[in-house]
Amino acid sequence: MTRPTPSPIVQISLRRITALFLAGLLGCGPEKPPAPERSATSATPATPASASADSAEPAPDAVMLTPDATGAVLTYAGERGAFTDTNKITEVPEEAKGLVRVTLLAGPEPPPGRVWVANLRGPATAGGWPLSTVERGLFEELALGQGRSSQVELPAGLEPPVAAPREADVIVYKTDWCGVCKQLTAYLDRKGVQYVAKDIEKDSVAAGELREKADKQRIKTGSVPVIDVRGELLVGFDRNRLEQLL
After folding, report:
1. How far apart are alpha carbons 181 and 156 in whole angstroms?
2. How far apart are CA 173 and CA 222, in angstroms?
3. What does the pLDDT read at residue 51?
4. Sheet holding 72-77: strands in order across?
5. 124 — alpha (psi -120 to 50), left (phi > 0) or beta?
6. pLDDT of residue 9
7. 112: CB partners within 8 A, 6+ apart
8. What's the 3-state SS for the chain?
9. Residue-wise pLDDT tens for the chain (246 aa)?
10. Judging by DSSP bridges, how do beta strands 196-199 and 170-174 pair with one another?
11. I want to staple 229 with a disulfide (CB 3.0 to 4.6 A). Which of 47, 209, 220, 245 is the partner?
């Protein structure tokens, strides 16, 4: 028995139904749960505080001057208002040990405009003497005992050097053959002024002392007498000026 062939209209309808059915099967697959949103904290775990602390560089140890240090230059206030350098701690005089500049030849540099200083008067600790810093100009003023600063604040543990006492308030540099020098000393004797007279021809130390003082004050000393009144030089016997200085 032959089965009847469906009409073209029916064939078209069956094809449409079949296509719709297949599309439904392909489009309605099982749903997947949405992926959880990744937050910043879940993507990159927070670093514990201890981890950052462990990774930080440790604070450097205090800068020290060891008792056997050979790679350091020590600068201290010497005689006659001059600085003296040495690389031996034992050569620093006791009166200057309270404030000594330390230049490390191989070591950390101090901040700009400042210098390393130490108090070597006391005994060394286990590691030596700790270094502090002061302004370069302040060190020079304190070490020489000039005291130009109106306010001075030293780091704890430092002591300015003890100023050496003056030989006399008035020092007369003279020669034996100088008639004006004799007039000057006679005048000082009448006034009752205490002074020390030094012959620069017979005493080479006195001649060098006068030359050093004159160079610092930029004074020419081609004649005598020269009078040192509390550190200020007066060339010649100027009675009025001397009275002012005295």
Report:
1. 50
2. 12
3. 35
4. 83-86, 72-77, 100-104, 114-118, 132-135
5. beta
6. 47
7. none
8. CCCCCCCHHHHHHHHHHHHHHHHHHHHCCCCCCCCCCCCHHHHCCCCCHHHHHHHCCCCCCCCEECCCCCCEEEEEECHHHCEEEECCHHHCCHHHCCCEEEEECCCCCCCCCEEEEECCCCCCCCCCEECEEEEHHHHHHHHHCCCCCCCCCCCCCCCCCCCCCCCCCEEEEECCCCHHHHHHHHHHHHHCCCCEEEECCCCHHHHHHHHHHHHHHCCCCCCCCEEEECCEEEECCCHHHHHHHC
9. 555 555 554 454 555 555 544 444 444 444 444 444 443 333 333 333 333 333 333 334 578 898 887 789 999 987 655 788 999 998 998 888 999 999 998 888 999 989 999 999 888 888 889 999 988 878 877 776 654 444 556 777 787 766 666 778 899 999 999 888 998 998 899 888 899 999 999 999 999 989 988 888 888 878 889 999 988 898 888 888 888 887
10. parallel
11. 245
What is the CB-side half-sphere exposure of residue 176 using CA atoms within 13 A? Answer: 3
Strand partners, 85: 75
How many Å separate Cα 99 from the centre of its chain? 14
**pTM higher than 0.90:** no
Q: Using CA atoms, how far apart are residues 73 and 57, in angstroms rounded to an integer? A: 30
Residue 203 corresponds to which amino acid?
D
